[in-house]
Amino acid sequence: MAQTPKPPSERGIGAVAIRWHGSSLELLDQRLLPGEEHWITLEGAVGVAQGIRDMVVRGAPAIGISAAYGVALAARHAGGGDWKAEIKQSIRELAASRPTAVNLFWALQRMEQVFHQCHSLDEAAKRLAKEAVAIHEEDLAANVAMADHALEFMAPDKPMSVLTHCNTGALATGGYGTALGVIRRLNEEKLLREVFADETRPWLQGSRLTAWELSRDGIPVTLNADGAAAAILARGEVRWVIVGADRITANGDVANKIGTYGLAVLARHHKVGFMVVAPSSTVDMSLASGSDIPIEEREGMEVREIRGIPLAPEGVKVFNPVFDVTPASLIDAIVTEKGVVHNPNITGMRALFD
Ligand code: MRU
C-alpha cells in the first residue's frame, strides 16, 4: 500500500463526508445537499446501518468505511452482557443495509476477522476502531494511487474534456475520489478542459453532489441532463467517459449507477474511451460475471417525486433499479490502486486480483 497521502484539506478538497471522533461518527447528510450542510452524529451501528440504507452516506467506498466505523461503535458502546453476540448482530444489521456495493461486505469481513481475534470487549473496542481508521486511510491512499495509474495510462498530451456519471468524489470515498479523483488529478496537472457531469436521475447524485463538489473546488464542470450525453459525445470533444464502480466481477463486468451501461454503449459508438476507476475493495472475484450481482431496486417514490413534489401521476407503477451492469467488452480500462486492466477479461482480472 502506498504511503499515507496528504489529507484532503491540504489538496484543496472542500467536501468531507465522514468524520470519526472515537466514540461517535459524523456523517454529512448527502440527502440535503447542495442546499444544506447538516451533520448527523451517530453512536451505534443501528444508526449507521439506517444512514447507509437511507443514503445519508452513499458511494461504494464511503459505505464500506462507514460500516467499518459502525462495527467500531458497536464495540465501543456494547453493554456488559454478551458483547460478542451484540457485535455479531451489529455486523448483520450493517450487512443488510444495501446489497450491490461489495465494499460494504469487504469492510465488514475485515472487521469480523479482527473481531474474531479479540479476547475482551476492551481489546475489541480498541482494535476495531484502529481497523476502521486503517480502512478509511487506505481508501484515501488507493484513490491517489488510482489517479497516478490513470494518468499514466491515458497519457494526455493536451487538456481534454471528460464526461462522468453519478458522484465518485470525496463524498463517495475516503476523501479524494475514484473517477472524480482522476478528474481532480487531470485538473491539478492542467490537463482538464472541462467535465460534463450527468445529472444522474433519479437520485441526482450528479447535479446535487458532483456539480457541488467540483464547483466548490474550482474544477470546471458543466451539468447536463442524462439524455444529453449522446449529443455531447457526438460533438467529438470528450476523449474519455470516466466512472466509478460498485462491484466488479471476475470477468471484468462492472455494476455502477443506473445509466452507466447506456453511457458505455454510447462511448463505444462514438469511439470515446470508457474507463472504470475503483479500489480493489470493489472487486469481487467470487462472482463469475455481472449477471451474478444483486442489483438494488429502490422505492418508486424516488422516481415519482422529488422532495414531496410530484413528477408523475400519483401511484404510477415505477421500475427503479439503481445500478446496471456494463459488460467488460465495452470497457477500455479498469483502473485500481494495484494497476490497470486494459480491455478487461478474466485473464487480465486474474493477473491482478488472484
Ligand atoms: O446509490 P449510490 O449513490 O451509492 O451509488 C454510487 C455509485 O454508483 C458510484 O458511482 C459508485 O459507488 C462509485 S463511488 C466512488
Rounded mean pLDDT is 96
How many distinct domains?
A: 2
Give the helices and strands as they follow along the chain: EEEHHHHHEHEHEHEEEHEEHEEEEEH
* Uncertain spans: none
* CATH superfamily grouping of the largest domain: Translation initiation factor eif-2b, domain 2
Description:
The protein is of the alpha/beta class and 354 residues long. It folds into 2 domains: 8-140, Four Helix Bundle (Hemerythrin (Met), subunit A); 142-353, Translation initiation factor eif-2b, domain 2 (Rossmann fold, 3-Layer(aba) Sandwich). Helix content is 39%, strand content 18%. It has helices at 45-53, 60-76, 83-95, 102-116, 121-154, 179-188, 205-216, 229-234, 260-269, 301-304, 346-353; strands spanning 18-20, 25-28, 39-42, 160-164, 192-198, 221-224, 238-243, 247-249, 254-257, 273-277, 283-284, 305-306, 309-310, 323-326, 333-336, 339-342. Helix 2 runs antiparallel to helix 5 and helix 3 (83-95) packs antiparallel against helix 4 (102-116). The radius of gyration is 20 Å and the shape is globular. The model has no long low-confidence stretch (mean pLDDT 96). The chain binds 5-S-methyl-1-O-phosphono-5-thio-D-ribulose. Residues 58-61, 101, 166, 168, 172-173, 178, 205, 244-246, 256-257, 322 line the site of 5-S-methyl-1-O-phosphono-5-thio-D-ribulose.
